[in-house]
Every structure is written in structure tokens, then in C-alpha cells.
User: What shape does this take?
Amino acid sequence: MHFGFDEDEESFRLELRRFATKTLAPHYQSDDKAATFRRELALEMAAMGLTGLRIPEEYGGQQASAVVAGLAAEEVGRADFNAGYLIINTALISDILVRNATAEQKQAWLPGIASGETVPCICITEPGHGTDAANLELKAVRDDGLTDEGGWRLHGEKTSITLGMAADRAVVLARTGAPGARGVSAFWVDLHTEHVSRAAFDDLGGRAIGRASLHFDGAPVTRSDLIGAEGEGFVSVMQGFDYSRAIIGLACLGAAQVSLEEAFQWARDREAFGQPIGKFQGVSFPLAEYATYVRGARHVCYEALWKKDHDLEHGVEAAMAKFWAPKLSTEVIHQCLLTFGHLAYSTESALGQRLRDVIGLEIGDGTAQVSKLVIARNLLGRAYAP
Ligand SMILES: Cc1cc2nc3c(=O)[nH]c(=O)nc-3n(C[C@H](O)[C@H](O)[C@H](O)COP(=O)(O)OP(=O)(O)OC[C@H]3O[C@@H](n4cnc5c(N)ncnc54)[C@H](O)[C@@H]3O)c2cc1C
Assistant: This one.
């Protein structure tokens, strides 16, 4: 057994720590206050290779392992949790495109994601279908007059879309056939068209990234925008979610870990009743417990990613990572905030913002219940699925 990163991974981690501390961290709170997506952020992340981590070199990417994508999310999550969304989104989306698109489509689509010029989003959730995504209703209606090879027009609404106000292109799941998962196809859709309108959410956290509802009112798509085969979109897109759940876990744990480090330092520095508060076990024990849980959850995340890299089944570990890490991180950051006392209750402190930001990923990409369904089904057997 071997714990730890190899030499290349470790030097990338250190390089990222420097980049994130110098370039990302100073904007974490000001971007939240501005509550708009800063376009330069995508270009800065791209210049570090962070938007092309899972894209093959021939398409301008880094061709990095899943473990390295997780490591990047963890490091960025420490400095600017919201910038981590760019890693989560681009890793998930480029993985879907790499696995399902034709060589011609990859050539047309992937370099823009790697260079940060194309900000992508993924559109699955609808007002009536979140967890129950297989029954989504947004319709792709055949329009054979659109091009020689025919096409479709998209009609319906997607909601709760990360980066929905800023994104240039989207993976959109739409119904092209019968009810259920097998009637769903995936398209790569240009969002800069008069047939798409957007409305922003006013969110608790993730404000520098934003979520939006997207209304598709006859947006045209052709065969060359179809990702994979017609009717196979749901399955091919959902397969990508497995490993991205572990990446999400690490982004959350990065924010939790840095909060713990700050709280331990505060426990050394802050005095009450004539001694450092770290001497009181009421202060040190919760921090010790959470440091232990964070380490455990981190191992589960990296195990999922390592298994993905070795073509091993990793759905259960990814589900464990997704249900545990965001929830744990929320609890850890809350505890750290309490350790600081009144000072951290001010918006001057990053802790309150981290708490607001991390809660979003308890829901985004699937709730804890969905992950537990996956874990339980696997441990009990399919016969016990509800
Ligand atoms: C920060 C954030 C970012 C997001 N980004 C995106 C994005 O980029 N693209 C996108 O398509 N969507 C995105 N989403 C939407 C997200 O995927 C959905 O919110 C999620 O799948 C849950 O759907 P829902 O909110 O409609 O809840 P519902 O499905 O209505 O569920 C409500 C509650 O019931 C529980 N529940 C539902 N079914 C079951 C069941 N069978 N067993 C037990 N419990 C159940 C759920 O766990 C939840 O607690 C994002 C959400 C957030 C908060």
C-alpha cells in the first residue's frame, strides 16, 4: 500500500497552492459581494491548465488523471471554493464529451473549454424533475427543414444550472423519444441565441458563480450537435457523475481543511481565563474529531478517483464521497466558526461564506439520499432498491 502523491503530483500540488494563494484567494470574498461571474477567472484557471485537466493533449488539455483533477479541486477549494466549480464543471463535461463525441466534435468543442474561452454548463434539472431526472420533459422536436441532415428544436425549461448566466455552451439533456431514461438524448448547445433566455437565482452561496433557469424556446440543434447516439444521452451523461462526485467532495474538504487549520491557529493564539483556548478540551476535542473525519472522507474521495484511474468500479466510493464530504465540511466549517467566537460571525471573516458556499454542494449534483440509495443498493443487493 502507498499513501501520498508521487513526485509530479506533489510538485503540481505545490504549484497550485502558490497560484491559488496569490491569484484566487484575494478575490474569494470580493467576488461573492459582487455576485457576478468574473470572466478573467476562467482565463486564469485555464492558464494553469485547470479547465482542461481531463481533456487529451491533442485537444489542448492536460490529460491529467482523475486523482490529479481531485487534487486540483482540493487545492482550489482551500483558496476560493467557488473557483472550484470551474474544475468540477469542466472535468465532468469534458469527460462526457471525450467518451461520447466523435473525433470531429472533440476537435471543434474541447480546445475552447481547455483555453477557458468556452465556459460550459450542464443542463439536466427541470422545475418538475430534480432527483427524478430520468423523467425530464424538455422536448427536442424534429425539424427536418433545419439542415440537409435534419435536426431538432428544443422547447422547455432547465433550472438550477451552475454558471447558467455566464455559460457559452451547454450539455442539454432533452427528450427525443419515449418516456424514461432511454428516450433522452444529449446535445451540445450554443447558448448565445435568441431562442435561449436566462433568469438568475439570488443564492445563499456560490454567488460568484451563480445558478440560473434557462428557457429554450425553439433553440435549433442538428445531428452534429448530438452527443453520442440518439436515446443514449441519459446513461452516457450519468456515467460521468460517478467520479465528479469525488471531485466535489475534495473541493468541499479543501474548504473544511483550511478552516480547521485557521481554527487550530486561533486555538493557539486566543486567550481566555489567562490561557490559550486550545488548552480547553471543549475547544480542542471537536477540532481533533473533525480533523479525523476530514482525513477519513478525503481517503474515500481519493480511493474513488484512484479506482477510476485504474478502470475499477468506483460508484460506491463516489457515492460515499458525495454524501459524506459536503455534509461533513458544512459541520466542520460551522464548528470552526464557533471556535472563533463573535469575530467569525462578521462578513469580514471567510468562514461564514465558506459555510454558505459548501451547503450548495450538499444538494448540487444529487442529494445525500440519492448517494445513500446507491450505497444501500450495492451493499444490500438490487432486490432491495425502492
Ligand atoms: C449549488 C447547486 C448547483 C447545481 N447545479 C446544477 C447544474 O449545474 N445542472 C443541473 O442540471 N442541476 C444542478 N443543480 C440541481 C441539483 O442537481 C438538484 O437540485 C438535485 O438533483 C435535487 O433535485 P431537487 O432540488 O429538485 O430536489 P427533489 O428531487 O425535489 O428532492 C427534494 C428532497 O427529496 C429527497 N428525495 C427525492 N427523491 C427521493 C428518493 N427517491 N428517496 C429519498 N429521498 C428523495 C431529496 O433528497 C431532497 O432532499 C444544482 C443544485 C444546487 C443546489
Q: What stands out?
A: The chain has a mean pLDDT of 96. Residues 121-125, 130-132, 160-162, 206, 211, 360, 363-367, 369 surround flavin-adenine dinucleotide (CB under 6 Å).
